[in-house]
Amino acid sequence: MLIRTFAAFIAVISAAGLFLALGCKSLPPSKPESQWTPQEARGAAVYHTACARCHYPTNTRGLNGPGLQAITKVPAMPSGAPPTDERLTNVILHGRNMMPGTSLDDQQLQDLLAYLHTL
Ligand code: HEC
């Protein structure tokens, strides 16, 4: 009897774990590096210099800030704001709470936005 209860408990925990794992996997896939346009590749270089020390590009786990996988494909960013280019530009240039603003010229900004859309 006790064993059966325990087995049921394990079954429920595994189902929950599977659900969570599938939930994480359900993010749309990033565009592979081999398919980047020249602009996206330039944006990746900007990201590497200005963002990578605080944000993972390939998952949503926290580093200093939230991981940015699929950031332009989710309905809302961690703050709740929709991930429009306008909002992203605002966060990137002016920062938000613990995130400092980054000064980029227009070309770098457009390249970075193109790259963020590949994530
Ligand atoms: C020094 C660390 C740091 C750097 C550098 C940094 N960020 Fe952030 N970022 C953060 C933190 C911390 C947050 C969480 C801010 C909050 O909402 O409280 C954040 C949040 C964000 C968000 C989510 C905004 C929202 O509305 O939820 C985006 C998108 C983002 N950063 C993009 C970038 C990009 C792109 C760069 C490079 C230009 C960058 N960050 C550079 C620390 C950083």
Summarize the structure.
The chain is an all-alpha fold and 119 residues long.
List SSEs in N-to-C order. Answer: HHHH
Give the count of structural domains: 1
Tally of contiguous helical segments: 4
DSSP strand content: under 5%
What are the low-pLDDT stretches, counting only 5+ consecutive residues below 50?
Answer: none
* Helix content estimate: 40-55%
| Strand element count | 0
Indicate the CATH topology. Cytochrome Bc1 Complex, Chain D, domain 2
- Please write the CATH class name: Mainly Alpha
Mean pLDDT: 88
- Are any ligands bound, and if so which? heme C
Q: Specify the overall morphology.
A: elongated
CATH architecture: Orthogonal Bundle
- Helix/strand/pairing class, anyone? mainly alpha
Rg, Å, rounded: 19 Å
CATH superfamily: Cytochrome c-like domain
Q: What characterizes the major β-sheet? A: none
Quote the distance from N terminus to C terminus.
49 Å
Pfam families: Cytochrome_CBB3 (PF13442)
Domain Cytochrome c: 38-119
Protein name: Cytochrome c
GO molecular function: electron transfer activity; heme binding; metal ion binding
